[in-house]
Design brief:
By secondary structure, the protein is an alpha/beta fold. It is built from 35 helices and 17 strands. It has a seven-stranded parallel β-sheet, with helices on both faces. A six-stranded parallel β-sheet has the order 8-13-12-9-11-10. It starts with a helix and ends with a helix.
């Protein structure tokens, strides 16, 4: 039977191989063994019951919590030529009757139902006369009160499954801790079941946490380099959604809001517009997204902190479902943490205990200094074996970006202590900078020994240090008044027994365009963008006529392969990812005509599939060549950072590679990026002349650690551009 499953995978769905664990799960279900599947969003859970449904003689019932998911799944299955239908409140009475009649005639292999619909007497009577071979529960974590989205009505499913004694039970979820998994099995009485737990690592998601500071500007900076991409921005409240939606619309973005304060008609209309590419961005509360199966969401931004790791993981999981790189940015502020704590304090008993543990785990993830996948996967009971994932902000950070901040930290902590731990971050920064503000003079803080000892730093830098000290657990905020309080751990730093290292500025929202050279294939990097756009236009046109989402015709990954391999025959087109027999019959000639005409016009030949290989060094080198050429054309480092959507340090790194390859650049343009005085620059150059410019650490120490690594990196490049090694 598994051979039949493989044939269905290729012929119907157009995929050549199973994803991890799909083969094992499908085999288990076909043998009628109860099965629990924990598989991350985008891991291919749907095929685990859709393929068995096409093998079984009887019906597969799928319990799903959201109407939008059912509609989306059925539309996609119909495009693959698979007979499926749903019963829910969105249908008119006439359509409902038609679907019931189709069901009785045996015209469907899959039936999607909400738990409430399944519990209705009429539905149970209808199904009692139909052979049901598979009873599937999607989003099964809703059964457990320890899950992040507990729904009491899901508990009743254990009783309903007894209506189908001959049906195999399949429970699926993307997010479940070990405790939740055991709960699911107990409640559903899956006594002899097999559990399949896929890795929770979505390695195509780039994880980044940024300190929230002027969030609108941070989001606008992020969106600037993603003008044609689809994304979701999550906010804590309806009011915040409306404000951000209004701001982004004013800036010219294709954006719509989504929250429970809108009418059901508005919510449905906005969601459909997003799914059908009529709007690029959705700004939403957590009410949006469960059941959204749009594969080409390229980013998820959290304007505010989510309430727990499971919600965060599920929400970022709505991006990159097509396997291509997607960026996940979370803006983190202490006030957001306090907001969540305020609502937790209103809870009682077990509910409060669970919420406290969830918040603690989330904060641990947000403030973690190492690879972010370590605490994230550990939360779900999985050990991440690598030290460097290459796809999170901490792992991508240059090792020498870490600064020794012990002395500034001692100044700051000492000032907090000398003011009686009664003031906030801005007041402490003002004292350190020698401000003559009325509040400082009235309180006599101009007489403190710490007054004016921090004039060498701008106020913003001291504020950033205060955030770092809170993240490191050396300071905490008074929950009632917001004043800074020293923790026990601060003593060791104040006494000099421990050093403090860290990165001050975590407000940048760029996610590193150069990461693509590490994580993506030739297809993703070298497809023909002009042909891709032509195919996208045709896809949208076809989708609009049929009133379905464009990705149900072909996902972006399929169009990218078409734009890379240039298939010009039916046989070659069938070898493209996601082109099954039904889609070949329906759309093959349409897309082949566009590809053939484009290839003829531009004299392009069909490309053999054996050329598809991972990016290597020669491919990645094109990036720094391009940066170097753009710089030599007259563009500044700041301009290039904005153009490529990366930090200045990344542009500097690419320019250094360009120079190391023997190319020349103008050092004057590099020096424009430096904020040091001419005197300080000459000191650095003298040090590099004595010690050598190749390694920065000896220079840093030679200068008594007074010049940070960001400046040293700028002057190193200027020195090499002027003098060579």
């Amino acid at each position: 039977m598994i051979q039949q499953a493989k044939e269905i995978l290729q012929e119907t769905f157009g995929y050549n191989t199973f994803r991890p664990l799909q083969n094992e799960v499908i085999s288990n279900v076909i043998r009628k063994k109860d099965t629990l599947v924990i598989m991350p969003t985008g891991g291919g859970k749907s095929l685990c019951y859709q393929i068995p449904a096409l093998i079984f003689n009887g019906l597969t019932v799928v319990v799903s919590p959201l109407i939008s998911l059912m509609k989306d799944q059925v539309e996609q299955l119909e495009e693959f030529g698979v007979p499926a239908l749903f019963l829910n409140s969105s249908l008119t009475p006439e359509m409902y009757r038609q679907n019931v009649n189709r069901l009785r005639r045996g015209d469907a292999k899959l039936l999607y139902l909400a738990p409430e619909t399944l519990m209705m007497d009429s539905t149970r009577r209808l199904l009692s006369d139909i052979k049901v071979d598979c009873f599937t529960i999607d989003e099964a974590h809703c059964i457990s009160e320890w899950g992040h989205d507990f729904r009491p009505e899901y508990r009743q499913l254990a009783r309903v499954r007894k209506d189908f004694p001959d049906a195999v039970c399949l429970a699926l979820t993307a997010t479940a801790t070990p405790r939740v998994r055991n709960d699911i099995r107990d409640i559903l009485e899956m006594k002899n079941s097999n559990a399949f737990v896929a890795s929770f690592d979505r390695n195509n998601l780039l994880l980044k946490i940024a300190d929230k500071e002027n969030p609108l500007d941070q989001i606008l900076d992020f969106l600037y380099t993603r003008p044609k991409q689809s994304g979701i921005i999550y906010c804590f409240s309806r009011r915040q959604v409306d404000e951000l939606y209004s701001d982004l619309k004013h800036e010219g973005h294709s954006v719509l809001p989504y929250h429970a304060g809108l009418s059901e008609t508005e919510r449905t209309r906005n969601q459909d517009a997003f799914i059908r590419d009529d709007a690029r961005i959705i700004v939403a509360t957590i009410a949006f997204g469960m059941g959204i199966n749009k594969p080409d969401v390229r980013y998820v931004i959290h304007h505010d902190m989510p309430q727990n790791i499971e919600s965060y993981y599920q929400q970022i999981g709505r991006s990159g479902r097509d396997g291509l790189q997607a960026d996940c940015l979370l803006l983190y502020s202490y006030s957001d943490k306090q907001k969540i704590q305020y609502f937790i304090n209103k809870k009682e008993g077990t509910e409060k205990e669970v919420a406290e543990k969830h918040l603690e785990a989330l904060i641990n993830y947000l403030e973690f200094d190492g690879c972010r996948r370590i605490p994230l996967l550990n939360y779900f009971g999985e050990k991440y074996e690598k030290e460097d994932c290459g796809m999170c902000d901490n792992c991508l950070r240059h090792k020498d970006e870490l600064q020794d901040l012990t002395v500034p930290a001692q100044k700051y902590l000492s000032c907090v202590a000398r003011t009686g731990e009664m003031y906030g971050a801005h007041h402490i920064a003002d004292i350190l900078r020698g401000s003559k503000a009325k509040k400082i003079l009235e309180n006599g803080h101009d007489k403190l020994s710490t007054y004016g000892i921090g004039v060498d730093w701008p106020k913003n830098q001291w504020i950033q240090l205060s955030r770092l000290l809170i993240r490191k657990g050396l300071l905490k905020k008074d929950p009632q008044y917001g004043s800074l309080l020293l923790t026990d751990d601060a003593t060791a730093v104040l006494s000099g027994d421990e050093i403090l290292q860290g990165v001050l500025d975590r407000t940048q929202t760029g996610t590193g365009d150069d990461v693509r050279t590490k994580t993506t294939s030739d297809v993703e990097n070298k497809y023909d963008e002009y042909l891709f756009e032509e195919l996208r236009k045709k896809r949208k046109e076809l989708a609009d006529v049929q009133e379905i989402p464009p990705y149900t015709i072909f996902p972006d990954t399929t169009l990218m392969e078409m734009s890379y391999y240039f298939p010009q025959s039916e046989e070659k087109l069938m070898g493209i990812y996601g082109v099954g027999s039904a889609k070949m019959k329906k759309y093959g000639d349409i897309f082949l005509d566009i590809i053939r005409a484009y290839c003829e016009e531009h004299n392009i030949k069909e490309r053999s599939r054996d050329l598809n290989r991972r990016i290597n060094k020669s491919t990645s080198s094109r990036k720094h060549d391009r940066v170097g050429r753009e710089y030599n054309s007259g563009k500044s480092i700041n301009h290039l950072a904005e153009q490529f959507g990366v930090k200045k340090v990344t542009i500097l790194s690419n320019l250094k590679k360009f120079v190391d390859d023997g190319n020349s650049i103008d050092p004057a343009g590099v020096l424009e990026a430096s904020e040091l005085s001419e005197r300080k620059r000459d000191e650095v150059f003298e040090s590099m002349k004595r010690i050598g410019p190749e390694l920065l650490k000896p220079v840093y120490e030679d200068l008594n650690k007074e010049v940070d690594y960001n400046e040293l990196r700028i002057l190193q490049l200027a020195y090499l551009a002027e003098h060579g090694s």
